[in-house]
Design a protein that fits this description.
Blueprint: H1 3-16, H2 52-59
Length: 67
């Protein structure tokens, strides 16, 4: 093993070893799309495009509109 592999393995073990089986890790979903502007979604105020599933996800989640 080279140094980078060993460092990566130690990094992984350090951060995953501290989570007990009883803790619930957070659910994180990152949506990345191509060829849309920030207004091309219903929850961002578009008049024509309907995105009901994304609208519901946006209502139930943290939303970063200036990210």
């Amino acid at each position: 093993m080279n140094r980078q592999s060993i460092f990566g393995l130690l990094f992984f073990l350090f951060f995953t070893g501290n989570v007990s089986a009883e803790e619930n890790p957070p659910n994180i979903v990152i949506l990345i799309s191509d060829d849309q502007t920030w207004t091309d979604y219903g929850f961002m105020g578009h008049d024509v495009i309907e995105t009901p599933n994304l609208d519901q996800l946006a209502r139930e989640s943290a939303l970063f509109t200036k990210g």
